[in-house]
What we know:
The chain is α+β, with helices and mostly antiparallel strands. It is built from 7 helices and 5 strands, in the order H-H-E-H-H-E-E-E-E-H-H-H. The protein has helices at residues 2-33, 37-70, 90-97, 103-111, 164-173, 178-204, 210-231, and strands spanning 82-87, 122-129, 132-139, 142-149, 154-161. The longest helix has 34 residues, at 37-70. The radius of gyration is 34 Å and the shape is elongated. The chain starts with a helix and ends with a helix.
Amino acid sequence: MTRKRSEHSIHAEESRLKKASTQTILHRLSxxxxxxxxxxxxxxxxxxxWLSAFAFLSLIFFxxxxxxxxxxxxxxxxxxxxxxxxxLPTAVIIQAKTLENPAALLLDSIRKQPLTQxxxxxxxxxxxxDGELDMRLEGVKGHSDIAVMLDTGYTEIKITPASTIDTxxxxxxxxxxxxxxxxxxxxxxxxxxxxxxxxxxxxxxxRKRKAMSLWLTAACLVTMFSVFxxxxx
Length: 233
């Protein structure tokens, strides 16, 4: 009889321990699954800290170049122009006459010539008029205008380097900057947007300043809307 009671006590103790263990696991899981307000603000602080390093550099660059873009007369300077001449090989000219659009062939041949100044820009457009092919190259660092006489191969090249300010403005707008730089602009925009939203969330996490935050937000929106309505022609 005593032995049966002892076994019953052991089973009861095991059941109690299993129940306690199950409750502990469920409690921990519920604690992990629950997402509190403090967790939200803590994650916002982490995001704000992680993105600050790159986003702030991008913000400084695009803010400064945007200011220069808005005031082009602050550092206005005359652009220099270089005029070069060369003659393309006869074999290239003969082959070009058989093509409907010989721009790519001629441009490749021009790049192989020993020019004193490198061509600036990537191919933008071309046109053939009265036996003359005109090409336009455009890039962030400057542009090149090329005229090729299809009967003789005589080529005249005008190279115009961009000023430092023009280069920065073109980088700001992404004009003729290439696919890689466009990715830089897109990534910078997304990071700055996330950083701004995280900072804005942290701004509202300050309970004593929440009312002031709402007032400032409303005032900024009203000001921008008013300027757009009455100040923009």
